[in-house]
Task: structure prediction
Amino acid sequence: MATIEADLTTGAVVEITNGTHTWVADEPTDLGGTNTGPNPYEMLLGALGACTCITLSFFAQRKGWDLTSVSARFTYDKVHADDCADCDDDLTGWLEHVTTEIFIEGTFDEAARARLAEVATRCPVHRTIEKGIVFTENVTVG
Result:
């Protein structure tokens, strides 16, 4: 189980902690923030990037493969379904869209390359986002 606490400090700055580490989120100045940290979507993509890199690293270690580097780039955008070549034909309106670029370096045979490409899109955070999340919401307004 993972738990974080988030507290709005000033303007759009939010201090976030898991009890051990503390970091901040903010919005860019053109959206009313002070740009002192990544915005919430960037933090979400950061979690996805971290999980992807860690998953690939651990997987390669378990297999004894020579992974020399792994990096990932994720881009978030809202796109119209009509403009999305990779989207289901039944979708309409605006869609949340993430473009993924993952770069894996090392000495691998063809089977290892294929397996790493498969594992790259199966980290726990990716699966959670892809499947959707069930929320239990408890909101207290004083």
In short: The chain has a mean pLDDT of 91. Residues 82 and 92 are 7 Å apart (CA to CA).
